[in-house]
Amino acid sequence: MTEKILFVDDDKNLLAACERNLRRQFNLLTAEGGEAGLARIAKDGPFAVVVADRQMPGMDGIEFLSRVRQQWPDTIRLMLTGNADLEAAIRVVNEGNIFRFLTKPCPQEMLGKALDDALAQARLVQAEKELLSKTLSGSVKLFTDILSIVDATSFGRAQRLRDLIASATDRLQVADAWEIHLAVMLAPICSITVPPETLVKARAGQVLSKAEELMMSRLPEIAARLLSNIPRLEGVSRIVRYQHKHFDGSGFPPDSITGESIPMGARLLKILTDMVQLQEAGHSRVQALAEMKQRLGWYDPTLLASVTKAFGVGDQAARDVDRPTISVTVKELTSGMVLRSDVETKDGTLILSAGHELNEMALEIIRNFDNLSGLKMPIFVEANL
After folding, report:
1. CA distances from 206 to 39, 183, 188, 278 (A)
2. How confident is the model at residue 30 (pLDDT cuts 50, 70, 90)?
3. Sign, Cα dihedral of 20, 21, 24, 30
4. What is the pTM of this model?
5. CATH fold for the domain made of 151-320
6. CA dihedral 111, 114, 115, 119 (to 10 degrees)
7. In sequence order, what are the beta bridge partners of 53?
8. What angle do CA 95, 69, 93 make, to 5 degrees?
9. Residue 195, preceding bond cis, omega within 30 degrees?
10. Which top CATH class is 325-382?
């Protein structure tokens, strides 16, 4: 009897009877009225099942269960009522998304059976939620592990940007920050569709052919389309699709979406990506932000001001302090270490580039190459302070 059930009614005698008759079979708590019910859930929840009377003074059962649905959507909701009116029942089901509708007086056996069914439904909802969560997290980890090997350069940049995104979303208190984090890490998935020589030319700033320019411009849309097939990643897909879109509507993709219609995560990612690119080109962070302010129409001005406040002059110490570098052997490498030097075979073949955060797949590849052909030593990594 680990799952808790809450009975909400304005009739003290009914609540006392429920406790007497059902407490041996169920983990049962009660609350007198809708307001008290919400307070009880907030204090003693979560509850697997909530049962409410329809007709209560103040907050009736329809409003109460509708608010339960909004705040605790996984809670299974049942309603007891002395009014068997069909229209009222339909309203209850539509507004409160009721699992079962029972009329008073309800025999104990029928009520017990309804509660058993509700608990079974609650367990099913929780099991599906856990399965989806584990499937999603496992799939994302598999994607990122593969990307870290297929396109180590893009993945390394994504890792550095991810750390900045984590700091920004925390400082700016961004809702659904997990979607932006996943967008950063999964966006490079589209690079597998581009010939390696084109990627090298684009990263080196070399002139691309018209076909190559079109190919590169379509990468976010391709990545978004791939991600949209994964349940619960619809928001991530939209962030990836609009990550290069200018606030005034110019840029890619060339559609009618402008301003705040662009996902907030994409607007933030655009600012931080451009800031990092300018820093990689030799600008300080302050210089990068100052130059970005001159790019009229490119960025959400309110969001750019917030980023400047969070990462501008006041962040000078964080910019200037670097973690020390240490040398390690292959056996000393562990997951989570950040490479400060390229990992190459003795004949000069690049395995992983500097800036790469090691994971189990990367470690396995390093060990395999070391066993087969040997690696140039030592390997330099970022020291943990």
Report:
1. 63, 27, 20, 17
2. very high
3. negative
4. 0.57
5. Hypothetical protein af1432 (1.10.3210)
6. 180
7. 80
8. 30
9. no
10. alpha beta
Domain ranges of the chain: 4-128, 151-320, 325-382
Residue (of 241, 256, 291, 254) closest to 271 by Cα position: 291
Distance of alpha carbon 369 from the chain centroid: 35
Superfamily covering domain 4-128: Response regulator (3.40.50.2300)
Q: Which of 262, 268, 284, 299 is nearest to 172 (CA)?
A: 268
* Angle of CA points 230, 234, 235, to nearest 5°: 135
Beginning with the edge strand found earlier in the chain, give each strand of the sheet holding 4-9 in spatial order. Answer: 27-32, 4-9, 49-53, 76-81, 100-103
Please name every residue paired with 357 in a beta bridge, in sequence order, or none if there are none.
338
Quote the CA–CA distance of 90 and 88 in Å, as a whole number.
5
Residues 174, 268 contacting (CB under 8 angstroms): yes
Confirm if 10 and 41 have CB atoms less than 8 A apart: no
**What pLDDT, in 10s, does the model give residues 255-277?**
899 999 999 999 999 999 898 88
Note the pLDDT tens digit of each residue in 164-197: 888 888 888 787 788 888 888 787 777 777 887 8
* Amino acid residing at 151: D
CA-based angle 195:201:203, to the nearest 5?
105
Comparing CA positions, the residue from 227, 315, 310, 206 lying closest to residue 268 is 310
